[in-house]
Amino acid sequence: MIPAGFDYHAPRSVADAVKLLGELGPEAKLLAGGHSLLPMMKLRFAEPGHLVDLGRIAELRGISQSGNEIRIGAMTTEHELLNSKLLAEKVPLLVEGAGWIADPQVRYKGTIGGDISHGDPANDQPALMIALDASFVLAGPKGERVVKADGYFLGLYSTQLAEDEILTQIRIPVPPAGSGWSYHKLKRKTGDFATAATAVMLQMKGKQVAKVAIALTNAGPTVLKARDAEAYLTGKAIDDASLNEAARLAMSICQPTPDQRGDEEYKRAMCGEMTRRALQAAHARAKG
Amino acid sequence: MGDMSDVKEREDKLQGMGTSLLRKEDARFIRGQGSYVDDIKLPGMLFGAIVRSPFAHARIKGIDKAKALACPGVVAVLTADDLKPVNLHWMPTLGGDVQAVLADKKVCFQYQEVAMVLASDRYAAYDGAGLVEVDYEELPAIVDPKKSMAPDAPIIREDIEDKKEVGHGPRTHPNHIFTWEAGDKAAADAAFKSAEVTVREEILNPRVHPCPLETCGCVASFDKATGYLTVYMTSQAPHLVRTVLAMLSGIAESKIRVVGGDIGGGFGNKVPVYPGYVVAIVASIVTGVPIKWIESRIDNISTTGFARDYHGVGELAADKDGRIKGLRFTALADHGAFNSHVSATKFPAGLFSICTGSYAIPNAYARVDAVYTNKAPGGVAYRCSLRVTEAIYLIERMMDVLALKLGLDKAEIRRRNFVKSEQFPYTTAFGWTLDSGAYHTALDKVLKAVDYEGLRKEQAQKRADPKSPTLMGIGISTFTEIVGAGPTKVCDILGVGLFDSCEIRVHPTGGVIARLGTMSQGQGHATTYAQIIATELGLPASDIVVEEGDTDKAPYGAGTWGSRSTPVSGAATAMAARKIKEKAKKIAAHLLEVSEGDLEWEIDRFKVKGDPSQAKTMKEICMVAHTGNLPAGMEQGLNAVTYYDPPNLTFPFGAYLCVVDVDKFTGEVKVRRFYALDDCGTRINPMIIEGQIHGGLTEAFAVAMGQQIPFDENGNHLGNSLMDYFLPTAVETPKWETDHTVTQCPHHPLGAKGVAESPHVGGIPCFSNAVIDAFAHLGVTHMDMPHSAWRVWQQCSALGVNKR
Amino acid sequence: MATAKKVSFKLNGKPVEVTVEPRELLIHTLREKLAHTGPHIGCETSHCGACTVDLNEMSVKACTVLTVQCDGAEMTTVEGMEQGGALHALQQAFHEEHGLQCGYCTPGMITRAYRLLKENPNPSEQDIRSGISGNLCRCTGYQNIVKAVQSAAKKLAAA
What we know:
The complex is a heterotrimer of chains A (about 290), B (about 800) and C (about 160). In chain A, about 35% of the residues lie in helices and about 25% in strands. Chain A has about 290 residues and is of the alpha+beta class. In chain A, a hairpin with a 6-residue loop joins strand 13 (about 210-215) and strand 14 (about 225). In chain A, helix 10 crosses helix 11 (about 265-285). The longest helix of chain A has 22 residues, at about 265-285. The radius of gyration of chain A is 19 Å and the shape is globular. Chain B is built from 19 helices and 32 strands. A 7-stranded mixed sheet of chain B has the order 3-7-1-14-11-12-13, with helices on both faces. Chain B has a 5-stranded mixed sheet with strand order 9-17-16-15-10, sandwiched between helices. Chain B has a 4-stranded mixed sheet with strand order 20-30-31-32, with helices on both faces. In chain B, a hairpin with a 5-residue loop joins strand 18 and strand 19. In chain C, strand 3 (about 50-55) and strand 4 (about 60) form a beta hairpin. Chain C has helices at about 25-35, 90-95, 105-120, 125-130, 145-159, and strands at about 5-10, 15-20, 50-55, 60, 75. Chains in contact: A-B, A-C, B-C. At the B-C interface, helix 2 and helix 17 of B face helix 1, helix 2, helix 3, helix 4 and helix 5 of C.
């Protein structure tokens, strides 16, 4: 349970952090909350020569609203998300989702940026980000760029973040009033990763779906957006038949990895079940 | 004068038997000042880290220590070759086998110990362990015990290939360990032949692990100058370990001291002698400095004493009214690569023959075939007497199976077969004499408390409604445990009888110190034994200090496992206290100038019959006992020691009921209610008893609902960390409702039976029965544990109940 | 291996200074360099919570924090709960409600409950159960721990 040796750096600004990454090269890894990286290092599944700790960079924290957009510093912890009055009012999906992540101690350290950047399909933030149509601000040696969440996640431990870049901010368009939302997560016990989980954002127009976003956690090598299910549901009423079909369409894109949580068949079925329940819950919350 | 309020006040002051006395142990624990083995630091201490095999079955072609030795901070690297000069590369196990301390020539289970790196601190030791290079040649592994005895099965134990027996009778195959039988096969077979109804079920008790929160470890310190070995150790049985170490090391037992300090949970996991301890001891002897070895959690789950892994077949024969005429229970036991099962010599399959349970079954036969596989060695009793969980799980499951076959209510079938109160003491078909019981009373009390009829009505309604999203199950378990090992004529480990002891010294000013041969790992002995002495001697519990665990100080005992502390050491405590009281009575008679027959005891003093103003308190007598004012010929002091050889084991029992709701679409099982009634005879500290019940039920819940040690076909672990090994949090853990009856033990000086393991033994089949009952109306007779959501969902799907 | 660093922080109100490799885990520094063996080690995968300390007003698992990250921090362990010879309400409540048996999870549990009650001085039973879901216990079944936290909450609210 002892990591291999490394050098430690604690820059005080994003600019310094980017500079360090450039100097140290591929042997450097960013340290955010540390609760994905340090456990891997303790088992020696990762042995970076340098850790660049983002914990002393004040500009990476904070939750605020700018126009119709919520902006969250990448080093904001899950605990801070959970307790944010602004988010509870404007983006309740994020509050619900953060509450399902790990346990109270991990939430005090785990960051939204870390959970997004790690590229682990079992992490919960990616599905929440996709459902919220979020964008990410990436800072690199050549400056900043903004990338949409949809398309950011490429594969197992692989995202659009370049080796010399840092995710600095998450931007979320404020969901329209009357939106329905839900994150349904099936797990073996509190604190476990998802056996299957689905994030839904939903807008109704009368009895029909005007817009819906469905994103699946831990159903493949990376987070999955259930586009076929979304397309199918748009314009339809939410009832048993449409829920069945939406679930079936979500299940059809799953490539779950069998492990102690379940085999492919179970995980796929649970993806369908979580999708159905998330849609039902979002529907119950939606007004419009 | 003894008016009632004065008497009560004096009794309350003692805080003796029956009081929910707050624990004396707490003071240090709530301040974080416990002394667990990893808290110990000795001057010059080195840290040992074990190098383990990545393969389940492989030959060792060579070990290269060079890189490890060059690592900063590394002092030495020990392998089997370094242990050979002291003949300690192999050691005898508590199961009559031998076990490799450090692997020589081959490894037989994944994570088996191959080398130990000694370094100046734990970081360097860990670094060094990663640098030891071992050249392995992989061999095919046996993971399924059903394949162990195939004619072409690879031979696991080449070291004993030619041995015709391994401690327990003839072997029929190199991977066979023993076959054990009990009961009367002919009579049982005859009963089955003539029976109106028979049922048969294949029932698995999966491999699980006790997983106490503190892992195993030791600090071994050999003093070259004095030749004295001290080992601080996570051990539930310090004296037995000291004796074993003397046998192994050749050091005189009088120069070995084993110290069990504070232990962070045992549950059976801390009874065996593990290779890590032995290597640390040898390392200390060789280097002359203290050596600390603390295992990791993954090491703990992967290599230390697992539990269960019994592949059973249960058969019952009955008449059409459900009265059982015959029982045949057999099991294939997977002991892993070495038989290190903690077992009394005469009982290689432990106390499995308690499997007639709470029922009067006239004809019974049991058989266990034990085999080797390429898995960790063991198993231990996980919060139960040896193999009792396996036995009680089988009988309680089979009662439900029989009920289903006959269309009888699951409570009713139990009533019809219970040993009746007037039949006690009752000798079972396997020869155990159940000391006392009141099974009907216990069950009826529970059924009334939960409104059983109402629950069955609700279940019937839910079953009739195809739209119900959940399936409701009701589980019953009416178990009898067998604890308090045990009478030395039947119970010994490596020849040492399973008696236990208590030594009491009373001081002139009325303080008391008592030392015992048992070993608490959280059960509250310092409080409970003080309460026994307080009531026996009339001295306040607050003045009574209780110590265990230091073999230099404590009288010999077999330690704490199998719920034996109250039955054996508790009895020794009462007997020792009574010796002191007898002497005190003589002194009182002398002081009051009356004969002993003129005295009567009241709470805390001897009074003269008919003249209560004439009295001497025990406190006064304590001082007098240290003066010259004693009866002629009497020695000073108020001390006694008792070694108690119990006349029988004890048989606590209980009735549990569990209500579950199964989500058809996810397989999740929600425990709606759990009602647990326990009868452990005399109750010494009700608060501590309740705490033990909560803990045992929670461990039962974990076992039934999610624990397992899974392997792939090459013997690789698939889930050996807390990521996957199911330890429930406060969120999953149900709320427990506890109740009790009191049926005293007729042969125990206090009438007490022991209780802490009952909830585990009785709880597991209760949960299992509840889950299976949820499917019973659909023809399901059995489902193997663990009842994880995934597995339960598979059952739902197979039955087609979750189609949308 | 890598350059050792001097780290200073306040531990239970007292300033301390240690020199550590960057890879040294806070739990090891506390237990082995600073003689605070209250927080315990129960696993190596950050699950059990036996190592929980209060760091800058957060409950954290000391096994998943590097000591070098703690420069300038304010840290409380179970050893700091007793003040001026008086037990904290939580320590007293754990004792009165029989919320401990082997004592191994107790330091982490009490330290976590301390922060939990600061987050939420009037928690429901469900709040408490999920609030301590990062702390495993094998002995008590949690029921009396919940009662202990409820009892302490009442006493602290009344004070």
